[in-house]
């Protein structure tokens, strides 16, 4: 299990061993639902009923909008919920990572639920993984930021059911702009490369996005993208 990057410590109450085990068996369930071809209609319906019962046992399905069952949080418990590295997220393929000498090294296996072309990982999942790994290496180097642009060069298809490895590093920092790069390999094969430009928001912008008071949650509006988050802004503030 990876420890959180500096400044984003895992919440021990949320990322408990029990929640991690729940996430693990849910990953197994998702994988089984994507690959099982022998189950009968009756078995599928029985499994759906069992899952529905488990959902009710945990408090029922929350509405897909801010409100009961979902609250805005700070970054302190983000990583356990991550769709890429989160040990408490059933969406995650569980990419384990560490930072050594300023570089992030990550390994994991993508299974059937991440398939794009038959037998290979969906390119969008590759991009998502790159975005997460680059974000981690930025934080580890003391340069957290929001994604401005992310360019992916796909060299070879990324295989399912085979361990892949990522390596990411910070290329340079200029003012509020952070340039980071990463590679994805399967064995000796270079599958993809990423080049990201990340923008460190000014304090008032970070406050607006990430620290709203409860009554601001419903009315928080995106800022003009050509103003405080403009990566072409030449002023290092």
Report on the architecture of this protein.
The protein is an alpha+beta fold. It has one domain: Thiol Ester Dehydrase, Chain A (Roll), CATH 3.10.129. It contains 4 helices and 6 strands, in the order H-H-E-E-H-E-E-E-E-H. It has a 6-stranded antiparallel β-sheet with strand order 1-2-4-5-6-3, covered by helices on one side. The longest helix has 19 residues. The chain is globular and about 60 Å long.
What is the element layout, followed by pairings?
Elements: H1 17-35, H2 41-57, E1 96-100, E2 103-108, H3 123-140, E3 146-154, E4 164-174, E5 177-186, E6 189-199, H4 203-210
Antiparallel strand pairs: 1-2, 2-4, 3-6, 4-5, 5-6
Q: Describe the strand arrangement of the main beta sheet, using strand numbers.
A: 1-2-4-5-6-3
Regarding quaternary structure, how should these chains be classified? single chain
* Number of domain units: 1
Instruction: Characterize the biggest β-sheet.
Output: 6 strands, antiparallel
> At CATH's second level, what is the architecture?
Roll
State the shape: globular
């Amino acid at each position: 299990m990876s420890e959180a990057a500096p400044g984003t410590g895992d919440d021990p109450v949320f990322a408990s061993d029990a929640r991690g085990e729940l996430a693990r068996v849910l990953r197994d369930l998702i994988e089984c639902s994507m690959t099982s071809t022998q189950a009968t209609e009756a078995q599928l319906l029985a499994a759906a009923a069992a899952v529905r019962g488990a959902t009710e046992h945990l408090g029922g399905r929350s509405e897909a909008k801010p409100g009961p069952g979902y609250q805005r949080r700070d970054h302190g418990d983000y990583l356990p919920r991550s769709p890429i590295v989160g040990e408490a997220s059933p969406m995650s393929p569980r990419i384990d990572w560490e930072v050594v000498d300023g570089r992030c090294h990550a390994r994991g296996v993508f299974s059937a639920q991440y398939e794009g072309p038959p037998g290979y990982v969906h390119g969008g999942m590759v991009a998502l993984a790159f975005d997460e790994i680059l974000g981690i290496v930025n934080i580890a180097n003391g340069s957290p930021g929001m994604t401005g642009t992310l360019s992916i060069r796909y060299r070879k298809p990324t295989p399912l059911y085979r361990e892949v490895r990522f390596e990411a590093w910070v290329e340079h920092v200029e003012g509020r702009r952070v340039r980071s790069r990463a590679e994805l390999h399967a064995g000796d094969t270079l599958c993809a490369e990423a080049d990201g430009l990340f923008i460190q928001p000014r304090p008032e912008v970070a406050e607006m996005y990430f620290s709203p008071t409860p009554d601001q949650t419903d009315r928080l509006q995106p800022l003009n993208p050509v103003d405080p988050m403009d990566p072409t802004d030449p002023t290092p503030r």
